[in-house]
Write a structure and sequence with these properties.
single chain; 2 helices; elongated
Amino acid sequence: MRTPIWSLVVSATFAISLTITALVALPETLRIQILISAWSICALAIIGWCASHYQDRRRLQISYDAKKPGCIWPTEFRYQDRSVIRGTIARLCVESKRKLDIIGCRAVLTYLEKSGNPVIPYNNLKFRFCPAHDPDSDVKTIRYGTPEYLEVLWLPGGTLQAEIMADFDFITEKHKRLDENDTYLFHVAFSAEDIRPLCATLTAQFNNGRWELTYTRK
């Protein structure tokens, strides 16, 4: 748990007060002992705050395992003409490693490469957390002990093309569909309040009749 900033203020005030008292009112034989004790307490408070703050900024955990049901989610889309398209969604698992909630977590596609050639070198295309149909699903609070899932790839059955599930605009729309003859590499940048930004590198490749997604942390 994070050490509150007010503890540093109290410790520093205490150390300064004792320093003034030692220099003005105490005999010289006690001054050094009092000064060492006072500033040691202040130093410990600073170290504790720095350590907890450092840990908090690294408490976002991203993972992907195709063998886990939560990362591969079967779904279907029904249309007004009563047609149904079935498939699966590849999802990244997003968790808080520490006993604190992560407020305002977002994920954006910043880079897309197709068989070694950058097709979207610089951008910020939003991904959405499950359920993606929620209009506010591009921002999520990650609560400790409750994993959330970021929808990354739509993998339809049959002959339809797989798609990256970011909010592509009119100019970049053509790049969201994946060609089975190409290998794709893309960067997903995560950010939230009071944490260090994290970048996930994903590789998508078509092998043995199905798409495989590989995750590495950058």
